[in-house]
Design goal:
The chain is α/β, with parallel strands linked by helices and 265 residues long. The protein has a single domain, classed as Rossmann fold. It has seven helices and eight strands. It has an eight-stranded mixed β-sheet, with helices on both faces. Helix 1 links the parallel strand 3 and strand 4. Helix 1 crosses helix 7 and helix 2 crosses helix 3.
Length: 265
């Protein structure tokens, strides 16, 4: 159902590829730039989801950004708990560099758990001494695995998708006894110094709203160029309805424009 919320994007082709051993799916827009790329990591609480489910969405994103999108099928829990996901994301990033993409031509993006993974990948790239990508664009990022934000309760009656109990189950599968404050699992607890520019989108009715608000505030405190955009009355990862819902189509257009601007900066 999630994969079919978006319309079928026009003039996009898809190609399966092994990105350094990580199964991935290229979304390639007709007439799109060949020297720029988005590395996209899907949502699903680290336990569900796939590149194929996000096929339509990443096709729309490829059109909006005017470049190809590498949609990564990173390993999922419980079979592959933390830190498998962040390892796979960084492997895919290294592969893009080896393929000749300049760091300044790459933006990392993802939604929900993939939004948290976007930030975690940027942290690991920094800590591993790799050249920084042009930016990160997390959508409704899950960065607090303990669910301590006020919006977890304040928006509980409005959020139709995400609740504390569901998040707790997913985080238990993902962590399997590891610390819920590990910065590469829950980037809200990380030192964000030195990260590239961030563009965060989130829905106003989400229980995870405060994950985005607190992440943006913490990034700004250490000098990261961060933009937070809250879309009133929107649900968790509403962007996946691009083409079928005006607010989603608008958000993806803004996301694509931000990505293209960062890649050309």
């Amino acid at each position: 159902m999630l994969g079919e919320l978006a319309t079928e994007p026009a003039r996009v082709t898809w190609t399966e590829v092994s990105a350094g051993g990580v199964p991935s799916l290229w979304a390639i827009p007709a007439d799109g730039a060949t020297d720029r790329a988005v590395l996209y990591v899907h949502g699903g609480g680290y336990v569900i989801g796939s590149a194929s489910i996000y096929r339509r969405f990443t096709g729309h994103l490829a059109n909006a950004a005017g470049c190809r999108v590498l949609n990564v099928d990173y390993r999922l829990a419980p079979e592959s708990p933390h830190p498998a996901a962040v390892e796979d994301a960084v492997i895919a990033y290294r592969w893009l560099l080896d393929e000749g993409f300049a760091p300044s031509s790459i933006v990392i993006s993802g939604d929900s758990a993939g939004g948290g993974l976007t930030v975690a990948a940027l942290l690991k790239i920094r800590d591993d001494g790799l050249p920084s990508p042009a930016g990160g664009a997390p959508l409704s990022p899950w960065v607090d695995l303990e669910g301590t934000g006020d919006s977890m309760t304040l928006n509980a009656d409005k959020d139709l998708i995400v609740d504390f109990a569901g998040l707790k189950t997913m985080s238990d599968h993902f962590l399997q006894g590891q610390s819920a404050q590990d910065p590469l699992a829950a980037p809200l607890h990380a030192d964000l110094t030195g990260l590239p520019p961030l563009y965060i989108q989130v829905g106003g009715d989400e229980t995870l709203l405060d994950d985005s608000v607190r992440l943006a505030a913490k990034a700004e405190l250490v000098g990261v160029d961060v933009t937070l955009e809250v879309f009133p009355e929107m649900q968790h990862v509403f962007q996946v309805a691009v083409g079928n819902m005006p607010e989603a189509t608008d958000a993806v257009a803004k996301l694509g424009a931000w990505i293209a601007a960062r890649q050309r900066a």
